[in-house]
Amino acid sequence: MSNLEPRPAPHELGGRAQASAGPALDLLPGKEVLLGEATHVRRLLPTLGRRLVGAWAFIDHYGPDDVFGSEGMQVLPHPHTGLQTVSWLLDGEVHHRDSLGSDVLIRPRELALMTAGHAIAHAEQSPAVHPRYLHGAQLWVALPDGVRDAAPAFEHHTALPGFDSDGVRATVLMGAMAGATSPGTAHTPLVGVDLELSAGADVELPLEPDFEYAVLTASGTADVEGVPLTPGAMLYLGSGRRTVRLRADDAAQLLLLGGEPFEERIVMWWNFVGRSGEEIAEYAEQWAEGDRFADVPGFDGHRLGAPALPPLPLKPRGRVR
Question: Where is the Pirin C-terminal domain (predicted)?
Answer without folding.
Answer: 193-290
